[in-house]
Amino acid sequence: MTSLSRLVLLAICLISPQILFAADNQPLRFGILSIAQPSRIYTKWQPFADYMSDKLGRPVELVVPRGFGKMKKIIASGGVDFFYINSHVFYRLKQEGKAIGVAQMQNISGNTTSRSEVFVQRGSGIDDIGDLKGKKVAYVSPMGAGGYLAPRAFLNNSGLDGETDIKEVFTKNLSNSIHGVLLGDYDAATMCGVNYRLMSKKIDTGELKVIAMSDTYPENVVGARSDLSPEVIDSFRQILLDLPDSEDGRGLLDKMRSMKIQKFVKYDPALEELTRELLRESHL
Predict the structure, then answer these.
(1) 115/170 Cα distance (integer angstroms)
(2) Which H/E stretch holds residue 114?
(3) What CA–CA distance (Å, rounded) separates 96 from 91?
């Protein structure tokens, strides 16, 4: 071996551990798909990022793309490693080979599924689903699970075609939906039942009444990009599943209750059948 070869080999031996160490300490990027304002998302999720950074021994940074299209692009380009999204969006990404399930959110009612509620003004003369024909119905977002997919499927199954029998509008956030019905801008609105109860603690909904509930749909999902290291995914998942087992983990979960999160459980692919059926029934 020449002197130059020895020097090159020595340099590789000295540098390689540093490269590996640097790779292990590159920030993990956690994307959040939400209809809330970015500043509010960062405020609510920063304690989660700090906790995961501490447990993983490497930084976890929050990324907040605006909308499904941007989230899809950033996942495909490797711009995020993990992400928190609704089951409708996750299903579409998984079908395209861009995402794998890591954990499922269990809501504060103790379930990994939920149902959407359809509500109207008291005294509006609308007492059941049939009365909504020809009316304006507000959904939250066209890519929502509880905010669109499940209630649209329910209305279709009830004989109301979303294309011809009602006028669909999108409010972009929960408070707009509630205030819109209260002010008479919409004849009815729909959202996740757990969210409706949480919002009722902030907004007086005494003038509203729930007239129907959709079939169940899966709650939000923590996913990972499909080419991420299995070891990294396993470590991230285990920390999520272990949150209820420590005092600091329970403290974090307490802060997440306002986002209807009680804890995380292992992702169950069987729940995808619910989404698949809702897509069929909603004609989307």
Answers:
(1) 19
(2) strand 113-121
(3) 9
Instruction: Compute the average pLDDT of residues 239-247.
Output: 98
Domains in the chain and their CATH numbers?
A: 27-110+219-271 (3.40.190.10), 114-217 (3.40.190.10)
Q: Residues 230-262, buried b or exposed e (16+ Cβ, 10 A)?
A: eebbebbbebbbebeeeeebeebbeebeebbbb
pLDDT at 284: 87
pLDDT category at 68 given cuts 50, 70, 90 is confident
- Terminal C-alpha separation, the chain: 66
Compute CA distances 101 → 156, 181, 222, 239, 269, whole Å. Answer: 29, 36, 6, 15, 8
Q: What is the pTM of this model?
A: 0.86
Alpha carbon distance 163, 184 (integer Å): 22
> What radius of gyration, in Å, describes the C-alpha atoms of the chain?
22
Given a cut of 60, whether residue 27 has pLDDT beyond it is: yes
> What is the percent of the chain where pLDDT is above 70?
92
